[in-house]
Fold:
Amino acid sequence: MEAAGLPPARHLVYTHHHWDHVWGACAWPDVEVVGHRAGARILAAEVRRPWSHQYLRGEVEANPRLGPSFRARAWAMPSWEGFAIIPPQIEFDDALTLPCGVELRHVGGRHAEDSTVVAVPDSGVLLLGDCFYPPPFHLREPDDGYAVDLIERLLDEAELGRYE
Structure:
């Protein structure tokens, strides 16, 4: 960012609490982390877990449905040195507009109860995170699919000018 002449980041926004969306926050010590209140509650519990390869193996042995997610976590972490889960320092319930004008809105859903969309009005971009995906594998039911109704609602809002 510095090499590109951009100002330093001030906020890191969690679109939801899943590991592949939050575990990198510890690499950004000088930013404020922002997330939905439900995700903050979940991450506060995640902080207390004894994260290690041994812990991940034990959890998969106890619940084999965790295998895909927990094996991916193990592959992503060759070392646990310096790792920490960072819960949001700024929490919101329904919506929040950051000082820079970025708009956050809770949409929830089956993928994650804290799913949040992020609108960057100046660019006309709406970041969806994974809000329309089915639940994670270990929670998935046979009839779970994409949240087409949520996508349709967001598209309708875009047509009404809520998002570009």
User: Anything to note?
Assistant: Strands lie at 11-13, 32-36, 90-92, 95-97, 103-106, 116-120, 125-127.
